[in-house]
Specification:
Structural class: mainly alpha
Distance between the termini: 55 Å
Strand content: under 5%
Helix content: 55-70%
Largest sheet: none
Order of helices and strands: HHHHHHHHHHHHHHH
Shape: globular
Radius of gyration: 19 Å
Number of helices: 15
């Protein structure tokens, strides 16, 4: 992927999309669409994940000497608005390379991107939470207060982000109280994408404290959607999973 020197974010976004279009495969694009619901508004150039990441690596190598987080932010703002998943992903990955320079102001922008459905599919939302929003909240724990409010938001992706943004921290035993509070706050929503996010968060919370997860499930499991529960117990031994399913029947 050839890049001009001293690229502006606008020129970079244009060249990235041109490269994605040139390397995309229509058959792969059609296959990728099958992994998403009909109401998830997303298109595909038709690159595999490694192929898209290669485009990102080549691009970043060209701008690394002179770009700052400011340019990366503008690029992400441009690409995340693109309708194609690969473009969104590259914008997120470039911004994530500057995570040590994130400021708390990015939190409000993050919600705006989610609310406007620029992350309007599970893959983009999860990538954004894992690479940008999660690290941001861990850098500035005071943002957790606002993250809890997201569980009451009307927008599906904002609510999913409230859970997924805590997955990485929960996996390492951090912010477990927040993780369980978010799980309880989200449990009554009807969307299966919320059920799966809750189960994922609970499963990771149990990695470092399985006893706490078991106690939580015995107390709250009957009110959890069964999809969330099945995700949550995946790391328990088979006999324990079977027992928990029996003990938590509604």
């Amino acid at each position: 992927m050839r890049m001009e020197t001293k690229l502006t974010p606008a020129h970079a976004a244009k060249q990235i999309c041109q490269a994605l279009k040139a390397e995309g495969k229509p058959a792969r694009a059609a296959q990728s669409r099958k992994f998403f619901k009909d109401d998830e508004d997303v298109q595909f150039y038709g690159l595999s994940v490694p192929e898209a990441r290669q485009v990102e690596r080549e691009f970043f190598a060209a701008v690394k000497p002179y770009w700052t987080v400011a340019e990366a932010f503008v690029l992400c703002d441009l690409l995340i608005r693109d309708s194609h998943l690969e473009a969104k992903q590259i914008g997120i990955e470039v911004l994530a390379r500057f995570k040590r320079k994130f400021s708390p102001a990015l939190f409000d922008t993050s919600k705006e991107w989610l609310t406007k459905n620029y992350c309007g599919n599970w893959a983009t939302t999860d990538a954004f939470c894992s690479l940008v929003l999660g690290p941001l909240v861990q850098m500035y724990p005071a943002l957790l207060v606002d993250l809890h409010h997201w569980t009451q938001d009307r927008n599906l992706w904002v609510r999913r982000a409230a859970a997924v943004s805590l997955v990485s921290a929960a996996r390492r035993g951090l912010y477990l109280e927040d993780a369980y509070q978010v799980a309880v706050a989200l449990r009554d929503y009807p969307e299966d994408l919320i059920h799966k996010a809750v189960g994922w968060l609970l499963r990771e919370a149990g990695r470092t404290d399985a006893a706490r997860l078991e106690s939580f499930l015995l107390a709250q499991g009957a009110r959890l959607p069964r999809t969330a529960l099945r995700y949550a117990i995946e790391k328990f031994p088979p006999e324990k999973r079977k027992w928990l399913l029996e003990q938590t029947k509604p």
